[in-house]
Specification:
The chain has eight helices and eleven strands. Helix 4 runs parallel beside helix 6. Bound molecules: zinc ion.
Length: about 260
Amino acid sequence: MINSDQHMHTFLSPDGHMDITDAVQRAIDLSLSHIAITEHYEFYENRSDNRYFHRAYIDEHLRRVEAMRAEYGNRIEIAFGIEMGQPHIDWNESQDIVRSYPFDFIIASYHKVKGLDLSRYDYSCVGNLLDEYLDGLEEISQTCDFDVLGHLDLPRRYSSRQGFPVEAESRMDKVGCILENAIRRGRGIEVNTSTMREGKAPMPGDAILSLYKKLGGSIITVGSDAHRTEDIAVPYADAENLIRAAGFTEISVFMGRKATQVRL
Ligand SMILES: [Zn+2]
C-alpha cells in the first residue's frame, strides 16, 4: 500500500489552495506515514519576470515545515521538499539554492518552455513543442541536482484537455535518454497522479514506466500534486496497480535526500 504523498503545494506556492496545517491534518487522517511539502520554485528565462521566488520565500517555507514538525512530527514524517521548475536555465542559482537549504527531497520539473507555461499553449498548433520540452528535460536530467523528475510527460496534461494530445510516447528514443541519465546518476522519477483525477493515465503512464523498469530504474516516488486538501493521496489504489503492472514491487520515500525503498 502506498502511504506517502511526495508532491503537494500549500498557500505559499502561488497556485496553492490549502493551508499547510490542513494538509498535514488531512494526511494524518488518511493514515499516511510520510509527506513531502514541495512548494514551487520557478526559474525564468528573463530574470525580471521573477516577482515571487526569492530566498525569503524558501526561508518561510522552511519555517512553516519546521513548525509543522514541532506540532505533528510524532504522528507523521514531513519532508522539506521543493519542486524546481526549469532549473537548467539558471544552473548556478539552482545549485546554490540546493546547497543552501536542508532539503529532504527535490523534484525537477519543466513547466515553462521558451518562457511560456505549458498550460498556456494552444495545442492545436504547437509545432515541435514536445521536442523542445524533451530536450530541456534531457538537459535537466544530465546536469541538474534533483532527486526525481516530476510529471515526466507534462505536455499531455494540458494538451489532452484541449483535445490535441501531445504524448511523449511518440518520442521514446528521447524519453529513453532522459531515463538513462537519471538512472546513471542515481536519480529517479515520480508517478504523478494528478491526471488520474481527470480519468487519464498518470504522468508518466505505463509505457514509460515499463521502459524505466527495462532500463534498470528503481527509484519511483508517488505524488498527488495536490493543491487542495481533497486531492492529497488521490487516487492511489489505481496508481499502485499501475506501478505493480510495470514490474515494480517497491517505491521510494525520501528524507535527507536519501531514498528508502518501501514495499508496495
Ligand atoms: Zn509541477
